[in-house]
Design goal:
Blueprint: E1 11-15, H1 22-32, E2 36-38, E3 42-43, E4 58-59, H2 62-70, E5 74-80, E6 83-88, H3 89-98, E7 101-105, H4 108-117, E8 122-128, H5 132-142, H6 146-160, E9 168-171, H7 175-190
Parallel strand pairs: 1-7, 1-8, 2-7, 3-4, 8-9
Antiparallel strand pairs: 3-6, 5-6
Helix pairs in contact: 1-7, 5-6
The structure holds guanosine-5'-monophosphate.
């Protein structure tokens, strides 16, 4: 951030049905943008192979998660696939005040709550797979179990029903184009006059 022209950070929310390519897009943005940090969620679900505490999630048991809710330590939380997921408040508040941006990999429920918790700070991007058939192919390629795939396909249709609540919708025809479009959205949102702390009467 420029010292002469300070701006408030923003919250870039990427939501998508599972397998739509959201993880690849978020990885590419985080690698390319030094001022963009990933919000690490807390969850009650068990770690998958390769997932590490504090890197992919903060893994918490139900009593510890509920204590965070009671203590207002979460900006938002939701139950997804029978498990609880939530966004720790303190790191987000600190980043926005420093003029840095936070990337969120959360679902539509989290997006809706985050907009309510941080009015004006949220830019929501919904990532669409080019077709639901493609989505099923991608889930199979990822090695998910058939029952899990059926469950996630039903959940995908439910997620897509909320696409209209987002500011932007990016159809992931090719990963390179989807990354470029999402990056353009981030850059334009950073330049919004509403974010420029130094502009009088903004
Ligand atoms: P997974 O278990 O596959 O990592 O995530 C399952 C779902 O939970 C995804 O749709 C993901 O976007 C959502 N999710 C992850 N973290 C959060 C969070 O902090 N808040 C909300 N509301 N959803 C989350």
């Amino acid at each position: 951030m420029s010292a002469r022209f300070p701006r408030r950070g923003l919250c870039l929310v990427l939501a998508a049905p599972s397998g739509a390519g959201k993880t690849s897009i978020s990885r590419a943005l985080l690698a390319a943008e030094p001022g963009l940090h990933l919000s690490i969620s807390a969850t009650t679900r068990a770690p998958r192979a390769g997932e590490a505490e504090g890197v992919h999630y903060f893994f918490r048991d139900r009593p510890a998660f509920d204590a965070m809710i009671a203590g207002s330590a979460l900006l938002e939380w939701a139950e997804v696939f029978g498990q609880r997921y939530g966004t720790p408040r303190a790191p987000v508040a600190a980043a926005l005040a420093r003029g840095e941006d936070v990337l969120f990999d959360i679902d539509w429920q989290g997006h809706r709550q985050l907009r309510a918790a941080l009015p004006g700070d949220v830019v929501g991007v919904f990532i669409m797979p080019p077709s639901l058939g493609d989505l099923e192919t991608r889930l199979r390629a990822r090695g998910d179990a058939p029952a899990e795939i059926a469950h996630r396909m039903a959940a995908a249709e439910a997620e897509i029903a909320h696409a209209g609540e987002f500011d932007y919708c990016v159809v992931n025809e090719t990963i390179a184009a989807a990354i470029a479009t999402t990056s353009a959205i981030l850059h334009a949102a950073r330049a919004a006059t509403a974010r420029q702390v130094w502009i009088p009467g903004r």
